[in-house]
Design brief:
heterodimer, A: about 70% helix, about 5% strand, globular, B: 7-stranded mixed β-sheet, about 35% helix, about 25% strand
Chain lengths: ~375, ~500
């Protein structure tokens, strides 16, 4: 019989080991799934985890994609994790992402076709402010009227989507676009284009910003009073109040920061990989980032790894659909398995497993 | 040991009960027996293994080894429902009641097969009358006093006709008058043959109520005795295994007024809290002001209004002559007013965080643990170690989570954290609640030492013996009103009881 015993404190060793175990368990269970679908399990696993990085033909194409996809996920998830740590639930990062992209792009397009080097920094600033302002709406409503930030931020996503549809057919529409919806393409606007910093790596400014955000968040949470207050508020809200944390300021800080980072991610995406403001340029990064934040245990380094892993399964999944003809649903199921095993393996860091002989179990029951 | 001789006609016997947790042997070969109709005290410091032992009896924890018998038959409850079915009931130290539900609804929730509400209400009335525990089944629990809430728990147990009733620290929330009512009930129960296993730190009570005591230390039964034949001090020394240090005092001449509240009124921030009404008090340098009162009479609110977690609606609060009502908790700390709330887990300390982080929680301002927003972890760790050392906090290291410490040790840490910051005024709420005798004595001594060094100390407590021992002046909170402080010396228990609440007097008559 197996028995679980709660550890007095979560184990650090298991905390780092469980993600690795979870990936292995996912590979095994996923392999069985693919085998039952009539595919070679080893080949399928290799296609998802190995080929995107190391395949001779596809590697060069998909390696940059890894950073392109992981960048915005990490950037948004870092911002969200601050709020989640403090028990402030910004679910509307997708909306802040869209508004950041619109604001940043609008500033850039307003100066078309200027070649000033100040344009891109101004766009970055406008993107951050756009996301920040959109997140301030649930923030101020919560602080002033006690509204629920989950609901308000989520509903503002749909408002943002409608604004996006409107501007890409109206205000920001490409005057030379022959009536098609969507803005000018930033590829044709060098001063405002977010190109690869090192050609062919996918390493654009947004990815750099994501790495910087990881480092700053790590410093904030481990070395700064504000980070301590964020953690304290999440762990014990009453103790935080007793310690003198100002809840209003903390709510506005967390929502504002996550909004600004989501806005930045949107701006970097629209001016880089996506290239233009269009009706559906947003790819759900704002929602996926919520999963990335939790997968990374709300820890900056964890989020960095989770973002990369998430991006890898997306790219590998697409590759597997293409190469092996695996159905898209099987890939989604595979990703679901990864979440499942990661969360389930968490048990090992909080509990220890004891094996009990049947005889001893019998004695205990008597 | 006497246990062996008593086994023949025992209601319950425990033999060689052993339970190990990672890193600690909570119970090691514990054996004793309970006679029908006796009140048996289980004595021991915090962490001595009392809770583990009763949890095994109540089916919450499975022993690693050893046997129990009930009425001569093997007894090994797999869960509390099995224990209840066998006739074992338990009243916990922390009540498990829902404020928004009625008494009858709460009782129904705790029963395995609740009867219809009307039938249950009439049975509650019957039982409450039979045992002298007045209780209206239709009242909302949120409106009840702590003593009445305890009655709900007791009646919930009595409805099952238990053969053994386990009570964990039952009097810590009661006025002296309520304690008398409870003891009457317990004596009536034992006269009908029910046995009671009674856990308490209050040695005088144990001497008044119990016929037999088993003393645990570090999970081992170290002695058994008849508490009526021992003095409270002898019992305490058996528990601690050492000579007990009785707080000594050397009253200094009180100095200038350090903190004063005048006409402070404040609606309670919580729905079932108590509003403060026109509270005025003054505390001088070098004196200890004791504030008694039954829990839920505005203690939390009074502390919050002083700590800065809440603002007074009317009236003024001055610290060394300066109005501080609008200042934040941090600003008050900077000016020398420190506080320690009652609830350790989640209020005065964050349970999941390490002791180092908890040292930072209130120490950041006065100990200068923050430099332009950045945390000085080395300095914080030194501060935490200083607290641990000076206040004899038993913990493997300063990195351990606050929640992994026993209640007494964490409380020593919390009090130590405030005392070591050299406050001008220290306000503590229930400083020794749920803390063992030795730790309580050392906490009291540190408060007295602080006052002797010239700080003003306010102690809010339900433990009257404690207040009598350490305070220079005494007052009491009753429904958010504060009585006029009087000198402690020469105050009788009856006078105190009256100060604590005229509202309780009709219940005394009942």
């Amino acid at each position: 019989m197996i028995r679980l015993e709660k550890r007095p404190q979560p184990s650090k060793v298991w905390g780092t080991l469980t993600p690795v175990l979870a990936v292995i368990a996912t590979m095994i269970a996923g392999g069985i799934l693919f085998w039952m679908l009539g595919k070679d399990p080893l080949e399928a696993i290799r296609t998802i985890f190995w080929d995107p990085l190391f395949h001779e033909t596809f590697g060069p194409y998909s390696r940059p994609q890894l950073l392109v996809k992981a960048g915005p996920l990490i950037l948004i998830a870092i911002g969200l994790s601050l709020g989640f740590r403090a028990g402030i639930w910004n679910i509307g990062a997708e909306g802040q992402y869209i508004m950041g992209a619109i604001c940043g792009a609008a500033v850039g397009l307003a100066f078309y076709p200027s070649e000033s080097i100040l344009i891109f920094p101004a766009m970055v600033l406008a993107g951050a402010i756009g996301g920040w302002a959109w997140a301030m709406i649930p923030g101020v409503l919560k602080v002033k009227f006690g509204t629920n930030e989950i609901l308000v931020s989520l509903m503002l996503v749909y408002v943002a989507e409608n604004i996006l549809a409107s501007v890409s057919q109206g205000l920001l529409k490409n005057p030379d676009g022959m009536g098609f919806p969507g803005s000018r393409n930033f590829r044709d606007f060098p001063a405002a284009h977010n190109t690869d910093l090192i050609a062919g790596t996918g390493m654009h400014w947004g990815v750099a910003a994501a790495f910087i955000a990881v480092i700053l968040a790590y410093i904030l949470l481990t070395r700064h009073m504000l980070g301590f207050q964020v953690r304290l508020t999440g762990e014990a809200p009453r103790a935080a109040k007793f310690a003198g944390v100002n809840p209003t300021r903390l709510i506005l800080f967390c929502l504002g920061t996550s909004g600004a980072l989501a806005g930045l991610a949107g701006l970097f995406e629209v001016s880089g990989p996506s290239g233009q403001v269009s009706i559906d340029f947003n790819a759900g990064y704002g929602f996926t980032a919520i999963i990335v934040a939790f997968l990374g245990r709300l820890h900056p380094i964890g989020i960095l790894l989770a973002g990369l892993l998430m991006a890898l399964t997306y790219i590998g999944g697409e590759l597997a659909q293409l190469m092996l003809g695996l159905p898209g649903a099987a890939i989604q199921m595979f990703q679901g398995m990864l979440m499942f095993f990661l969360l389930a393996m968490d048990m090992l860091s909080h509990y220890r497993v004891r094996w009990k002989t049947p005889a001893a179990a019998q004695e205990g029951a008597n | 040991m006497t246990g062996d001789m008593r086994q023949g006609d025992a209601l319950m016997t425990l033999e060689g009960l052993t339970k190990a947790y990672p890193g600690v042997l909570a119970n090691d070969q514990v054996s004793f027996s309970l006679l029908p109709g006796e009140v048996h005290a289980l004595l021991g410091e915090n962490g001595a293994g009392k809770s583990t032992l009763v949890k095994m009896i109540y089916g919450l924890v499975k022993p690693d080894a050893g046997q129990m018998t009930l009425n001569g038959e093997a007894f090994a409850p797999v869960n509390p429902a099995a224990a209840r079915a066998a006739g074992v009931a338990m009243v916990f130290q922390h009540f498990s009641l829902f404020d928004a539900l009625s008494v009858a609804e709460n009782i129904a929730l705790g029963m395995d097969n609740p009867p219809s509400t009307r039938e249950l209400a009439s049975r509650i009335r019957e039982v409450s009358q039979a045992y002298g525990l007045p209780l209206d089944p239709d009242r909302i629990v949120g409106d009840l006093s702590a003593g009445e809430r305890q009655r709900v728990e007791i009646i919930r147990c009595l409805l099952q006709n238990p053969k053994l009733l386990i009570m964990d620290e039952p009097t810590s929330v009661l006025t002296p008058q309520e304690v008398e009512i409870l003891f009457e009930t317990l004596r009536k129960l034992t006269s009908e043959g029910t046995s009671i296993l009674y856990i308490s730190h209050k040695l005088e009570e144990i001497r008044a109520l119990c016929e037999h005591a088993t003393i645990l230390r570090h999970g081992v039964v170290v002695d058994t005795c008849d508490p009526r034949e021992k003095s409270a001090r002898e019992l305490a020394e058996l528990m601690v295994g050492d000579k007990l240090h009785v707080p000594s005092r050397d009253p200094a001449e009180p100095g200038a007024v350090a903190l004063s509240l005048s006409g402070v009124s404040m609606p309670s921030p919580s729905e079932f809290g108590t509003d403060l009404r026109n509270v005025s008090l003054e505390v001088r340098k070098g004196e200890v002001l004791g504030i008694g009162g039954v829990a839920g009479n505005g203690q939390d609110e009074l502390l919050a209004v002083m700590s800065g977690e809440a603002r007074a609606q009317d009236g003024s609060i001055t610290l060394a002559g300066e109005e501080i009502n609008t200042l934040s908790p941090g600003a008050r700390r900077a000016r020398g007013l420190l506080t320690a709330p009652e609830e350790r887990l989640g209020h005065s300390a964050a349970p999941e965080m390490s002791l180092i982080e908890n040292a930072l929680l209130t120490g950041s301002v006065r100990e200068k643990l923050v430099d332009r927003g950045f945390l000085r972890w080395n300095k914080t760790e030194k501060f935490a170690r200083r607290i641990i050392e000076a206040f004899d906090v038993r913990t493997p290291s300063a990195d351990n989570a606050a929640g992994s410490l026993s209640g007494g040790n964490l409380q020593k840490f919390v009090i130590g954290r405030e005392v070591l910051q050299n406050p001008d005024v220290l306000v503590v709420n229930q400083p020794t609640w749920g803390v063992d005798a030795a730790a309580a004595a050392s906490i009291r001594q540190s408060l007295l030492d602080l006052a002797h060094k010239g700080a003003a100390v306010i102690v809010i407590s339900q433990d009257l013996d404690e207040l009598m021992e350490i305070s220079d002046r005494f007052t009491a909170l009753n429904e958010g009103r504060l009585a006029r402080p009087v000198p402690t010396q020469g105050l009788s228990v009856e006078e105190i009881g009256l100060m604590m609440g005229g509202a309780e007097s009709d219940e005394v008559a009942a």
